[in-house]
Amino acid sequence: MTTRKDFLVQSGMLAAGVVLLPSFTLLAKNPKKNLGVQLYTFRKEMTEDAVGTLKKIAALGIKQIESARSTKGLYYGLKPKEMKDVCSDLGMTLRSGHVALDENWQNTMDQAAESGQEYLICSSMPTEGQTADNYKSVAEAFNKAGEECKSRNIKFGYHNHEYEFESENGEVFYDILLNNTQPDLVHMELDLGWVVVAGKDPLDYFKRYEGRFPLWHLKDMDMVKKESTEFGKGGLNIAQMLEHKKESGLEYIFIEQEEYASTPFESMEHNMKFMKNL
């Protein structure tokens, strides 16, 4: 006699204790191996139940994970290696993490090395000041951080927001970072959504700084509200961006959505379907 559980297992609809809906199953059979998610998308859920949330994320067909700081630490209350192992057991890779370049930097690098992640991304400017001098100073700090990470076999990088595209005397602050950091030490994670909201063109950056952007935050943006939305509903031409991934130097895409029509899981299911159909 075949039980319901036997049927689900045989049909591929039961994995890691999670029942996959038909749409989830379809996505899981056609994974884009370098397509991932920034866990800030699921910030509330990860804080409440890290392992359970990771299981649901894996069921969506996501293969790459980028963590973010939380009230429970860098790995949502899990130890670094535990976070790595949970992801691995679910068929995912803990690839990257958003952190701060602050007084805890040495410990942050130690934890990243223990987790086995490839990238360590500074998620915001470590010092305040919308001036060229501050950005040049930060570029020096990034080069140093890149050297320290490299000695631990980790790649250091920086994630932009909108404010880096402001300028002083015609010089864009983000360009200052690019011009004053070493490409082999500082790997840029380009948040495409914030680039277009700032009135800039990601393709222009791919052309002028070819190969500098191995990581993307793929985020469609409501251009009126200046907040994230589901793919295809905002002002980012995602298909066009993907046509130029080679110039970018793209290795991994992390989908990030901070606002949702309903729930982060429903939004991410929509986004994964959108990507599958491109």
Automatic annotation (TrEMBL):
A molecular function (GO) term: isomerase activity
One Pfam family linked to the record: AP_endonuc_2
UniProt keyword NADP, yes or no: no
Coiled coil: none
Keywords carried by this UniProt record: Isomerase
Keyword Isomerase: yes
Name this polypeptide is given: Sugar phosphate isomerase/epimerase
